[in-house]
Amino acid sequence: MDERNVKILAIESSCDDTCAAVLSGNLLLSNVVAGQQVHHDFGGVVPELASRAHQQNIVPVVDIALKKAGIKKEEIDAIALTRGPGLMGSLLVGVSFAKALSIGLNKPLIEVNHMQAHILSHFIRTPGEEFNPPSFPFLCLTVSGGHTQIVLVRDYFDMEILGQTLDDAAGEAFDKAAKIMTLPYPGGPLVDKFAALGNPKAFNFPTPHIPELNFSFSGLKTSFLYLVRDGKLANPNFAEEHKNDLCASFQYRVVSILIDKITKAAQQTGVKEIAIAGGVAANSGLRKAVAEAADKYSWKVYIPKMQYCTDNAAMIGIVGYYKFLKKEFADIDLVPKARLEFSKKA
Description:
It contains ten helices and ten strands. The chain is of the alpha/beta class and 346 residues long.
């Protein structure tokens, strides 16, 4: 079989987006995402509602992905799925569907770690666009709503966490700050939007002194909460009147923490190939700061396309492709894991 023609159907359902993609080798043929509006009224993802919506969405999403790719389900060579980490109910829907399809089509299963998939999203080849993946070894700052990690990537299947959050993730901190200001869910993108209109030095938030390459954002969230609370005591409209400056100042501090740690990691390892990944990789403040650091430290920086930042199945498919080449297939009795450990095998 020509490796470039290996067809992978990928399924991602770790949180509130139902996703399916088809890849031919490392070339993306389709990438379909169905979001869930039901959570907006609750200010966050409701796990039970998420799993129910996945059940409604997964069949049409997979069908659309296959049709957009221009192939029949019988033509795929393997099915890649997100095993974890994520919400157990959501993962169950994707895993169960993938297993049933695997049995029905007699195609092998490939299990994928969601966080490692974010990292390898840099190796997806998009039709009509320049393909410029990182060279090994590289450092990846993976930042999402549930995780914040610095990973040394020596190879597709050799990754080591050098530092990670000890409490809250950076993406969760953005969403929490938005909620404190009563911004609608999802709040992270809105913080980014309003930050562009504000003064990042208007409010001075503390920098946590966390050892080594680890992170902590719980204290920063508390500091933000107290500032807004005290401001509202003097002026009930404080949050609204200072919305842009609050967002800009909070974003500035989060980004500065991230950049400080990845800079230390680059200095300690001597690695100058730097990538970012995860949902917060879409943040304009972080993208700008990484680009500025690249000029300052002579890094070669890799910033993912927007469609590969948030949850998607294309990133699951690229891991599936590289695992297919190594014939690393999963047993049909595999079960999802909400807290799947980060192993050196992507």
